[in-house]
Amino acid sequence: MPKKLLISIVFILTLLTGWGGSTHFTTANAATDNSLTKIQKKGTLVMGTSPDYPPYEFQATVHGKTKIVGMDVAVGQKIAKDLGVKLKVKSMSFDSLLVALQTGKVDMVISGMNPTPARKKNVDFTHLYYQGGYSIVINKSDKGIYQDKDSFTGKTLGAQTGSTMYTESKKQTSNTKVKGMTSVSDLILALQNHKIAGVAMEKPSAQAYVANNKQLAMIPSHFNLSADDTVAAVAFKKGSTALVNKVNHSVDQIKNQDLVNKTYLPAAGKYLKTNTVNTSMWHYWKAFLTGVEYTLIITVCATFFGFILGVILSLARMLQGNPLKTAIRWLATAYVEFIRGTPMMVQVMFVYFGLGLIVNLPALTSGIIAIALNSGAYVAEYIRGGINSVDAGQTEAARSLGMSSGATMRYVILPQAIKNIWPSLGNEFITLIKDSSIVSIIGVSELIFQSNIVRSDTYRGVAPIAVIMVLYFIMTFTASRILNHFERKMQHD
Ligand code: ARG
Predict the structure, then answer these.
(1) Do residue 162 and residue 144 come from a single domain?
(2) Chain CA centroid to CA 416, Å
(3) Signal sequence: where (predicted)?
């Protein structure tokens, strides 16, 4: 029997990898370059960015709503306008931007990104639109201790994961620990809590952080940089020659007319000043409420579809008889084992990025699908366990009274089994309230995601975490009270 299981798993794996591999070759075909017409037909241009990098891109609260602003957004707007389409800005972590571009989640990336040779292998860049350069942000109280990148011996220097600062800090410092974090705002918090001694980033960004925070100061980095490392360009999917050529006109205009310095930066600066004014958590109740809403939507939908899938799987796992039934049983078993043997986080990313190569699903839908697929495997086991826990004598008695196997299931086994299954289902629902937080990695606006926004907006590290802890507890506690109530009722009948 284990052999068959192994075969099914190998079969599924070959299917998955085979399909992942074949899509790889379709991306870079210049002969069928319809990149430009595709965007124009679609009417929207989706820009991916990591809004933790003022003045390039950052979140600002405008009339109680958080919005992504900054000079890169202005660059995106100009590009979209010149193409005659609408701009949509999508926020994600810096290190997943290029994956999102390659898998079609976004149409372009503008995120203060340097067109390095390594990146050029995977995506196409436009001409440069801005020249930055590197600096290091430190605590003002440490001024005098650190002069540049070489003064951090025995200390920790922070840099954003996936950024050129991270690679260069590793390469160009000695006896310095380089700590990577996904968001620059988290790095700044770590700096203020003295977990790290400095943060390497682009000079304009360092200036913005220092201008907004009296406890911070900046020093030159003195990194040895190539020309590509100091400029920012717009990235498109590999092979989008027509689109890149067209966008280069807009980018050249931006550069030649110095639009960034003359118009975009001053406009972004206005948001910067209003950004840190209100740091009370009450001010962000709307963001938290949205988070709760999304968390509940995901949990309810995923539980519902997960339950249906679980019922189907558990029935499939009980099939016996002809080879077809056996095959179905083995597939169901393989599925359950596979899902239970891989982390939900990986499954979420697989559905969003992997499945995204075939059908372009929005993040929320992908999140619900992934969690439902995951939950189904567990629910199937609860149902199977519940049914198995009903004494075999019950079936024998019912069958000897002349009941069909279907009727036995429906009238004798299931009513008893449901009492055993119900508490597990309730637990599953409560677990999903908490575990749905994983979908924040693909940018679904659930509670964790919202707390990250509040965190980067207020530069307060702990308060938003405390708030969502309480909110999660209220949700799970209420849910468990309600479920207990029904459970007790069932025990009475
Ligand atoms: N210029 C650096 C790079 O290309 C860092 C950019 C970080 N951008 C951001 N939006 N966080 O890797």
Answers:
(1) yes
(2) 41
(3) 1-30
**Six-digit token string for 335:** 């599925």
| 5 token code pair | 């299981």
The residue with greater pLDDT, 116 or 409, is 116
Instruction: Report how far apart the first and last C-alpha atoms of the chain are (Å, whole number).
Output: 41
Mean pLDDT on 331-351: 96
Percent of the chain with pLDDT over 70: 91
Interior/surface letters 358-367, b for 16+ CB within 10 angstroms, e for the rest: eeebebbebb
Distance 207 CA to ligand 1 centre (A): 15
Testing ligand 1's pocket by substitution, the residue of 90, 164, 234 carrying the most ligand atoms inside 8 A of its CB is 164
Among the atoms of ligand 1, which is closest to the Cα of residue 232?
A: 1
Same domain, 248 and 332: no
- 296-313 exposure pattern, b = at least 16 Cβ within 10 A, e = fewer: bbbbebbbebbbebbeeb
Q: Which atom of ligand 1 is nearest to the CA of 184?
A: 11
pLDDT digits (tens, 9 = 90+) for 415-444: 899 888 999 999 999 999 999 999 988 889
Predicted confidence (pLDDT) at residue 396 exceeds the cutoff of 90: yes
- Same domain for 58 and 170: no
**Percentage of the chain exceeding pLDDT 90:** 72
Domain that holds residue 88: 33-131+230-277
Say whether both 87 and 176 belong to one domain. Answer: no
Strands (E), 348-436: none
Instruction: Give yes or no for residue 57 CB within 6 A of ligand 1.
Output: yes
> Of 192, 205, 198, whose CA–CA distance to 219 is shortest?
198
pLDDT at 26: 42
Based on the fold, state whether residues 105 and 168 are members of the same structural domain: no
CA of residue 51 to ligand 1 center, whole Å: 10
Is the pLDDT reported for residue 9 higher than 70? no
Q: Are the C-beta atoms of 137 and 215 separated by less than 8 Å?
A: no
The angle subtended at Cα 205 by Cα 283 and Cα 290, nearest 5°, is: 25
Name the strand (E) or helix (H) holding 124.
Answer: strand 123-131
**183 CB less than 6 Å from ligand 1?**
no
Burial 56-91 (b: 16+ CB within 10 A, else e): bbbbbbeeeebebbbbbbbbbbbbbeebebebebbb
The reported pTM is 0.80
